[in-house]
Design goal:
5-stranded mixed sheet; alpha+beta; single chain; 25% strand; binds tetrahydrodeoxyuridine
Length: 146
């Protein structure tokens, strides 16, 4: 199924409205497109003891994987301070990039960093995590970088 970037970004924007961020007030939404066309959304969820906080991207990945879905094509990410008039580009943190590396092909997985459905930047996972360490390094499958 072809990727509808605008629709994926709209779903990320909606997911962002559910962000639970009483400590940072920085709200992130993600919409993860699986190879079968299903979309798994996520928001960031914080904790009073801080370290259990989970990013929007990992929320989306863990929802999908916990439902048996492991093949992904793209993720749209939106983020910014609560109440911001206009969002800025929000790049995924290193931990989330590593989780992407676990399940996605670095050459083909598309990461859309969006301000709005009309304004976004697109990267591959390889661009955001060059020479990433992944399952292939432990002999699980084919190497994904040269
Ligand atoms: N956060 C995400 O959810 N995704 C990102 O890509 C960057 C950071 C969250 C974590 C925390 O709840 C808040 O944004 C501030 O770091």
């Amino acid at each position: 199924m072809p990727l509808d970037e605008k629709e994926l970004i709209r779903q990320a924007l909606k997911a962002r409205t559910y962000a639970y961020t009483p400590y940072s007030n920085f709200q992130v939404g993600a919409a993860l497109l699986a190879a079968d066309g299903r979309v798994f959304t996520g928001c960031n969820i914080e904790s009073a003891s801080y370290t259990p906080s989970n990013c929007a991207e990992r929320t989306a990945f863990f929802k999908a994987v916990s439902e048996g879905v492991r093949d992904f094509k793209a993720i749209a990410i939106v983020g910014g301070p609560e109440g911001a008039e206009k969002l800025d580009i929000c790049a995924p943190c290193g931990v989330c990039r590593q989780v992407m590396m676990e399940f996605c092909d670095p050459e083909t997985f598309r990461i859309l960093l969006a301000v709005s459905p009309e304004e976004y930047q697109e990267y591959t996972l390889k661009q955001l995590l060059p020479m990433g360490f992944g399952p292939e390094n432990l002999g699980k499958g084919k190497m994904k970088y040269d």
